[in-house]
Amino acid sequence: MEELKKIREDLNINGPKPVYFLMGTEAYLIDQAVAYIEKNAMDEAQSAFNTHILYGKEVSIDQIIGLAKQYPFGSDRQLVIVREAQHLSRTIDQLISYVQNPQPSTVLIIAYKYQLLDKRKAIYKALSKNDAVVTFNPLYDNQIPGFIEQFVKNLGWHINPQTTHLLHSYLGTDLGKIHKELEKLKLVLPAGGTLTPQLIEEYIGISKEFNNFELKKALAERNTQQVMRIIQYFYQNPKENPFVVTLSIVHQFFTQVMQYHCLNDHQPKTVAAQLGINPFFVGEIALGARNYPMKKVSLVLHSLRLLDLKGKGVGTQGFDQEQLLKELVYQVM
């Protein structure tokens, strides 16, 4: 996200660069960067005749350079966008002559997804010398709630931490999926509205009662009956509730409970800062610590690691999701 912010700020202050080489494994952020540069690098009236979109599978480096060296039509600038440029990985070095002497009236955007250039290569060094390389890596799991909150804010809506984490627990770290699902709500939620669990359940399909967020809450309370109800819903709906996601969230929760036990200062602000969580969730962690002594948490974490191996088929002939979920409850409760 910081990389995208830097592109926006630099373009707004200094104007567009002659070359952008956008690479990395976070394809969604690369697409967002391309879209922002395309929209803001030149006037809309001029862009119609001066925006050229190419695809790596369909063009050669020579064709890209040839087009980039042309002069714009009725404008002082043209855009040349190369999407899916990773398909040019074998010949990308041939771009070096252009990078070293780019056409001043052209903004060349290379979207090089899912891969990284070798930093030892001359093409990387030439691009870096011109400050053209921007690397987009996936967000860490703990950065996703902030992404959701900012995205919702940009849409003109309000959201509370509980709803944010409900979305996070269901949609995971796939930024494109989060974007797509939230875009659905533009038809029903006006600007200034509040995103609620009820809207999410109705239009995105997340159960507000049976989800990983509520499972974590029930585990903190050590509410065996509610945990069993949620687990039953999970193994009856395995596609919407994959075991690997549930196990990851439960493991994260008990890791945070263990960290809480190890802290000397249990003031909410201190706990939130040390654990890297929203203060809204400190109470849940504290409740978990009261209900699970440190020794029990240590045993739970060990059991969860063994269960992870079972889920991957290590040392077993295979477990179905129902068996794995039931064993998870047995080991924790």
For the largest sheet, list the strands in their spatial order: 2-3-4-1-5
CATH topology annotation of the largest domain? Rossmann fold
User: What's the helix-strand series?
Assistant: HEHHEHEHEHEHHHHHHHHHHH
The name of the CATH architecture of the largest domain is 3-Layer(aba) Sandwich
**What ranges have pLDDT less than 50 throughout 5 or more consecutive residues?**
none
Main sheet attributes: strand count, strand direction, barrel closure:
5 strands, parallel
CATH superfamily of the largest domain: P-loop containing nucleotide triphosphate hydrolases
Secondary structure: number of strands: 5
Average pLDDT score: 92
Amino- and carboxy-terminal Cα gap: 39 Å
Evaluate the radius of gyration: 25 Å
Percent range of helical residues: 55-70%
